[in-house]
Amino acid sequence: MRRCAIVTGVSAGLGEALAGQLLARGYDVLGVGRRRSPRLAGTRFAFVHADLARVDALEQALVPAFTTLAACSPDFACLINNAATVGGVGLLGTLGGAGIAADLDVNLAAPVIAADCFCRIFADPGCERRIVNVSSGAAQSPIAGAALYSIAKAGLEMLTRALAAEQGGGRLRAVTLRPGVIDTPMQEAMRGQPVERLPGVAMFRDFHASGRLVAPAGVATKVVVRLVEGEIDNGRTYAYAEL
Ligand SMILES: NC(=O)c1ccc[n+]([C@@H]2O[C@H](COP(=O)([O-])OP(=O)(O)OC[C@H]3O[C@@H](n4cnc5c(N)ncnc54)[C@H](OP(=O)(O)O)[C@@H]3O)[C@@H](O)[C@H]2O)c1
Fold it and tell me: Rounded mean pLDDT of 162-184?
């Protein structure tokens, strides 16, 4: 059985751990992002350079790489929309149009484009296909200073539901993951924010101080076993505790 996976944002954090876990389990893995990880290598790993903030050029970057992977006629193909940024932290009223657009491009437009390319290129009904959209509890509960992140994640969760509605639950299914609190550069960036930009910063400092952050490798293993390889309900949101 030939299995392949596409993971966005594989230079660090959860994406790097997911790609590593998938390689270890025998998948062909395509990483998408601005930077590679020295830990991801070998003949089954390919990387396509793409800045997800450059949505005008994204399709052009993804199509050849997706087409090459699909041409191997995999029995199973999975897209994990993992990459995200918290670059646009700050209160509404201070953000500015360019920063707002760039943040929403990375966190929302880019995953929609990746899903659109995936549905079009991995069109073989003989191939079982999945899309895992990595969201956050912030999609449901706003955090003062992180409005753009919450707005994008809420939209990403609707992408999952739209895919489930459109694709009819046949051999292409989609789920949302809210992965809990993970010990990654993103958490470090959040707890390092000044309180004026991120009034909710105390929560992130407490995650770290109280030892609540989970190692990315452990989360990645659960995600692969439960959401990539296990039985899933099409269109559903899965919290870390359910994995
Ligand atoms: N960590 C947590 O506690 C937590 C909690 C809830 C949800 N999540 C979600 O889990 C996912 C992974 O988060 P993480 O904590 O692992 O984040 P992270 O450590 O910040 O890693 C983010 C990844 O996204 C990539 N990325 C960011 N901007 C990009 C751009 N413009 N173009 C291409 N790639 C870009 C980064 O690559 P570069 O090297 O190019 O920057 C990096 O590989 C995200 O969707 C996040 O929202 C995380």
Answer: 93
